[in-house]
């Protein structure tokens, strides 16, 4: 029995250790930024697409914001997909000067299907754009967003993700901890991987894709996490996602724990779905091409699996304690001493503190940091439920109500 127990626990512990070490090292690579000489001459043209489903409360503020971007007006057009709307989202968008395309479909519901439908319409238009930028209706956008994307495009990037900030980080403890999570990911994930040449991942909004890539490879991303699906699809084709740290989009975070729960459950379902469909072909492509970026993408996809394995490991640890089996880690103690593991676990809390200091958050964020572990550990049941429902593809809409103009947002930031 004890031998059987060790055969399970030791490989599991080695996997957890190596996975944790890998991302711990990557995380520290996001503590700085490389110097960059930017190209500030506007050249590229953009189709700016806003995906909207019953967003009358917030769509007007975003469109006013987009019309005021610091980029030549003749180089971008604003399109709104009014997707299965039952309110006056489309009318508000027209009055705000956007080109509105209304879509009604009983099948193929969700943002991924709406984007695929919109892209096909764009490809048939007389005017063709160099790149397509996608926002959610609840967003606000930094005035230099397109200028920053233009810089990345002129340097040869094809698939680009902008900095994911929060529109309402101080509304509730839920939106606050959600914002902290995004700030941390922006640095220890996106910026870190950019610094060392790995691929970032698309975040669903604030993303820019060249038209030639979409025409050549197609969108084809219609699952619950269409952004991750397209990231991995592109990566298999050798196209990495790059990170534009100064192209900032402000995203509305959930106000209640239940909203947060439902949104994250959808993300978990989608990631399991993408992982099971893409990991085999990505492993094959990564090994054949000897491309560490593709193999790193596989590691990104198995993060929910890692959380499940880690949780199972902890449960079995308690079983070991109850039945008083010999400690399963003794045979590899020299490989992963407890002091090193303690240092790694401590570092997981130090990195958020460093990042909050770097971005100069308000005092409220430091209070929310005390509740940050609640947000982190609530992922355990969410991921488990997401795994059980990984084959379900029903889209769940998150209602957005935080009506705020860009000027009001900046005033709040300064206050």
Please tell me how large the radius of gyration is. 22 Å
Q: Tell me what the CATH architecture is.
A: Alpha-Beta Complex
Biggest β-sheet, characterized?
Answer: 8 strands, mixed
CATH topology: Spore Coat Polysaccharide Biosynthesis Protein SpsA, Chain A
Counting structural domains, the number is: 1
**N to C succession of SSEs:** HEHEHEHEEHEHEHHEHHHHHHH
Query: Number of DSSP strands?
Result: 8
Widest beta sheet: strand line-up: 3-2-1-4-7-6-8-5
Helical residues, percent: 40-55%
Q: Compute the number of helices.
A: 15
**Overall mean pLDDT:** 88
What is the first-to-last residue Cα distance? 63 Å
Gross morphology is: globular
CATH class: Alpha Beta
Topology:
Blueprint (H helix, E strand, L loop, with lengths): L1 H27 L17 E7 L6 H9 L8 E8 L5 H7 L3 E5 L7 H13 L7 E6 L3 E2 L3 H10 L4 E8 L6 H23 L11 E4 H7 L8 H11 L4 E11 L5 H33 L2 H10 L1 H21 L14 H21 L4 H15 L1 H10 L17 H9 L1
Parallel strand pairs: 1-2, 1-4, 2-3, 6-8
Antiparallel strand pairs: 4-7, 5-8, 6-7
Structure in words:
The chain has 415 residues and is of the alpha/beta class. It has a single domain, classed as Spore Coat Polysaccharide Biosynthesis Protein SpsA, Chain A (Alpha-Beta Complex). It contains 15 helices and eight strands. Helix 8 runs parallel beside helix 9. The longest helix is centred in the middle third of the chain and has 33 residues, at 257-289. The N and C termini lie far apart (63 Å).
